[in-house]
Specification:
The protein is α/β, with parallel strands linked by helices and 214 residues long. It contains eight helices and eight strands. It has an eight-stranded parallel sheet.
């Protein structure tokens, strides 16, 4: 069954603890946290003080997605919160092996993110060291964007690669996920989906989560 990680980027920040508790009680598998620095992407989101409050409200593990420059600094900033995963963009990291080892040294599972224009082959020599690969199905920076269909063949290619190099590595997709494309994602080998607008704008958030757990 596909795991669902609602992105709190689409939550009501005036009632963040309430919304986090609601999705956890509604059956989500992870709580996805988008950290943006205003440099790597043209948006600025939240720091460790707010994420600490999210962690206290959550009864499910955190999945922290760094969209930042200076990844090492941000890993050190968020590692004390003990998320399940920390993911960083391959496009921004000069020494990915070193950063993977650093994340793992904190007892956190490392993941790498690929932008829509990045190819799975970039991970050929590093996939064996990862717990998850996150494929962006929108351009990172803002919620509510339309799904980029080319992520489907990319996920299939990555699925074949991970079966050969690291069968335990999960594939996650983030951006524009809904009940309209969830079957295609599952058929492509995707294990985890990030859904922000689809979950938080739904009248019944528990039902929205359940509709993706196929």
């Amino acid at each position: 069954m596909i795991q669902v990680a609602p992105s709190i980027l689409s939550a009501d920040f005036g009632n963040l603890a309430r919304d986090v508790k609601e999705i956890c009680e509604g059956g989500c598998d992870l709580v996805h946290v988008d950290v943006m620095d205003g440099h790597f992407v043209p948006n600025l989101t939240i720091g460790p003080v707010v994420v600490s409050a999210v962690a206290k409200a959550a009864t499910k593990p955190l999945d922290i997605h760094l969209m930042v420059e200076n990844n090492t600094f941000f890993v050190e900033l968020f590692a004390p919160l003990k998320p399940e995963y920390i993911s960083f963009h391959i496009e921004e990291e000069k020494h990915p092996h070193r950063l993977i080892q650093k994340i793992r040294s904190y007892g956190i599972k490392p993941a790498i993110v690929l932008n829509p224009n990045s190819i799975p082959e970039e991970l050929e020599y590093i996939l064996a060291d990862l717990d998850m690969v996150l494929l962006m199905s929108v351009n990172p920076g803002f919620g509510g964007q339309s799904f980029i269909d080319s992520v489907i063949p990319k996920a299939k290619k990555l699925d074949a690669m991970r079966k050969r190099l690291n069968p335990n590595c999960l594939i996650e997709v983030d951006g524009g996920v809904s009940d309209k494309n969830i079957q295609s994602l599952k058929d492509a080998g995707v294990d985890v989906v990030v859904a922000g607008s689809y979950v938080f704008k739904h009248q019944d958030r528990a039902q929205a989560i359940k509709s993706l757990q196929i």
